[in-house]
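Lecture notes, part 5. Sequence design as translation. It can be helpful to think of inverse folding as translation between two languages: the language of shapes and the language of residues. The source text, in structure tokens, appears below.
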């Protein structure tokens, strides 16, 4: 099959295992091109201002010989591959121009084409190198811990389970979990976050993270070929195969466009001469120009380069996109739905109060933790953590069963226990104790019930906090014209509170996983396209059902690579706005490139037929000029800078849970404002927003004095 677009697209193939070595001509490019241009200038001068016509043609031939090495080499390769490319067309045009006394124009065309090809290669190399840099982020050597001490070994020899040391100022060579020591790590290469993150025992470390200040030991969890960095780079390569509709259309268009242009050029050469007895040289010349100017290089480059630049830029921002088509899909999204726990909130639940009914506090926590120890839900982890703090040993559990979205049951010492949400126990027809649950829900905490034999044994209350970046996300999306919805399995009242705090358009609570799917389907009927944002584990069905699934959090990477279309490698929700901004910019650039290519090509083709075009203009502007314009426009994606400032949250954190008045023996939980616990400062409780140093989020002056309203004594925060 004739393939005129191969040469235009092969420079964008970034997945080659080996790179070709530069030839002597490519290495010394300007040493050939500058003399070629000088000789061509002398040739033109001799042609127009002297009688030395033969000498001028000789100089033009020498000029072509100096500049055509790369074109000839590619043309020969293409001939053996049985395809017609821009290199062949340019070589034919350059040589044929001498036979119709346009030698200088042919030499000029070849010279301009060689320069444009060289610049094009430099431009596309930036995109190739950006991906190559991702693969080279992690060190090639690691400090392997052995019985004799630490020794330096190649990273590729490190196996899962090995212990590796990371010195201060050293990059982590491989993924692992800290087993000794603690330090700050700069994870900007993975998550795009410039602020260092504090890591201690059991925290995960990613290859290419930079250790800031203390020596740590990590236990390797992934081999070098399977690290998060390697997956990101590999995913970018694979994503290029997942082509957008625009790319497929252009490839299909080129199949028909190429033979049409070849036939049209031949007809322009033959028909005027054969049927109207017009000058052969003139119409042969116009046919050559039409052949060159109509080469679809710019059109075929218009989409893939912009997409590659976008995929690479997004990866550097800590956003992994599984295909070009998902960048294109972003332009159709009208509504973005969010899960609550672990997405809009941090998912780091804390136990606040334990209500005793038929069992004491320790037994309630012990039984609950024994059941939840087999669960991966954030609620379960919080209860197990509470049991560890109380130094409680756990029971063994038999017949363990998870009822998705509701709770758990299991046998302990022959007794069947249940733990879960209020709705779970309502379905089981349990007897509920007084008004306690209503008071708990009104306080903003989540009640987790423990029971057996239709009797509630106790209630554990806990609360989550809003991510600091959540208000910035929702506000940023609203300013860009997107609608928002919250879809959660949590209590409807809690969802309404969070929804109101964030100004989300609609909130749907108390939904089971299958009900979330139905809600997504309902929203898809109302809006052109719907995106779903979740943690990528519990929300996998909803992510798959939506038009665009976005997973949050690097901890869920392994699973979400299979489920979500877009993965935000950090927990920073602002990255979602960054994704839509870069996608919007990419889609705009692609439209600009396509229409610019088409308009210029059509205009130059018309000018060629009516005789107002020259060969060197056709090459310099109509072909390679447009191609370079498309390439440079696509590379402007790398200039994108996030519109949000980094926000440190460490000074917003508080382990306090209750306010106590020892005088009148009253106790209340720490109140929340704007979705997070209020913070004690200078004898007052203040809203966390007052402590922010950010122009992106409106500050809040809300504060509460720490004095008991009954006895006016000072309250203690514990």
């Amino acid at each position: 099959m004739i393939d005129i677009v191969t040469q235009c697209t092969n420079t964008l193939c970034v997945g080659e295992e080996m790179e070709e070595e530069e030839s002597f001509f490519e290495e010394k490019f300007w040493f050939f091109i500058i003399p070629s241009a000088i000789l061509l200038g002398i040739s033109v001068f001799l042609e127009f201002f002297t009688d030395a016509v033969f000498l001028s043609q000789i100089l033009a031939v020498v000029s072509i010989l100096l500049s055509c090495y790369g074109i000839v080499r590619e043309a020969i390769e293409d001939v053996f591959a049985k395809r017609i490319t821009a290199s062949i067309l340019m070589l034919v045009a350059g040589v044929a121009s001498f036979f119709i006394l346009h030698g200088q124009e042919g030499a000029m065309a070849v010279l301009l084409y060689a320069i444009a090809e060289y610049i094009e290669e430099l431009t596309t190399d930036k995109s190739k190198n950006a991906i190559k840099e991702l693969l080279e982020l992690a060190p090639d050597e690691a400090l392997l811990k052995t019985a004799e001490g630490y020794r330096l070994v190649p990273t590729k020899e490190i196996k899962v389970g090995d212990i590796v040391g990371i010195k201060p100022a050293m990059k982590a060579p491989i993924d692992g979990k800290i087993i000794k020591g603690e330090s700050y790590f700069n994870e900007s290469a993975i998550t795009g976050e410039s602020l260092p993150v504090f890591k201690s025992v059991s925290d995960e470390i990613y290859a290419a993270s930079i250790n800031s200040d203390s020596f740590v030991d990590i236990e390797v969890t992934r081999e070098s070929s399977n690290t998060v960095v390697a997956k990101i780079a590999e995913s970018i390569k694979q994503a290029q195969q997942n082509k957008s509709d625009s790319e497929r259309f252009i490839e299909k268009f080129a199949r028909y466009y190429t033979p049409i242009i070849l036939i049209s050029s031949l007809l322009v050469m033959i028909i005027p001469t054969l049927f109207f007895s017009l000058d052969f040289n003139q119409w042969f010349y116009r046919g050559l120009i039409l052949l060159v100017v109509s080469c679809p290089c710019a059109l075929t480059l218009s989409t893939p380069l912009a997409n590659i630049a976008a995929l690479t830029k997004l990866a550097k921002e800590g956003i992994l996109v599984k295909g070009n088509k998902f960048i294109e899909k972003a332009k159709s999204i009208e509504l973005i739905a969010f899960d609550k726990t672990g997405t809009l909130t941090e998912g780091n639940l804390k136990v606040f109060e334990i209500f005793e009914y038929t069992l004491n506090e320790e037994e309630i926590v012990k039984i609950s933790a024994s059941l939840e120890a087999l669960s991966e839900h954030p609620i379960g982890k919080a209860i197990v953590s509470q049991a560890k703090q109380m130094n409680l040993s756990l029971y063994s559990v038999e017949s363990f069963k998870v009822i998705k979205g509701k709770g758990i049951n299991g046998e302990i010492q022959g007794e069947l226990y249940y733990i879960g949400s209020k709705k779970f126990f309502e379905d089981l027809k349990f007897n509920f104790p007084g008004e306690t649950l209503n008071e708990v829900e009104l306080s903003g905490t989540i009640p987790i019930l423990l029971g057996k034999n239709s009797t509630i044994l106790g209630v554990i209350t806990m609360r989550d906090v809003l991510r600091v970046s959540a208000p910035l996300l929702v506000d940023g999306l609203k300013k860009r014209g997107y609608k928002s919805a919250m879809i959660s399995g949590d209590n409807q009242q809690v969802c309404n509170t969070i929804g109101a705090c964030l100004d989300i358009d609609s909130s749907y609570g108390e939904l089971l996983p299958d009900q979330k799917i139905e809600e997504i389907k309902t929203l898809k009927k109302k809006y052109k396209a719907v995106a779903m944002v979740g943690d990528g584990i519990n929300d996998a069905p909803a992510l798959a059902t939506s038009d665009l699934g976005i997973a949050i959090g690097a901890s869920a990477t392994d699973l979400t690579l299979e489920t979500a279309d877009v993965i935000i490698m950090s927990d920073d929700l602002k990255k979602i706005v960054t994704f839509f901004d870069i996608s919007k910019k990419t889609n705009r650039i692609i439209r600009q490139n396509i229409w610019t290519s088409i308009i210029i090509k059509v205009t130059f083709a018309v000018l060629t037929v009516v005789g107002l075009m020259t060969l060197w203009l056709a090459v310099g502007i109509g072909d390679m000029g447009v191609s370079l314009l498309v390439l440079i426009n696509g590379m402007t994606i790398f200039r994108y800078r996030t519109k949000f400032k980094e926000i440190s949250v460490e000074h917003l954190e508080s382990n306090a849970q209750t306010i106590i008045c020892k005088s009148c023996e009253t106790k209340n939980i720490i109140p929340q404002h704007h979705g997070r616990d209020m913070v004690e400062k200078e004898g007052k409780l203040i809203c966390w927003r007052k402590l922010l140093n950010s122009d992106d989020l409106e500050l809040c002056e809300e504060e509460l004095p720490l004095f008991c309203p009954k006895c006016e004594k000072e309250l203690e925060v514990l």
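The translated text above is only one of many valid answers, since several sequences can fold into similar shapes. The CA atoms of residues 453 and 663 lie 41 Å apart.
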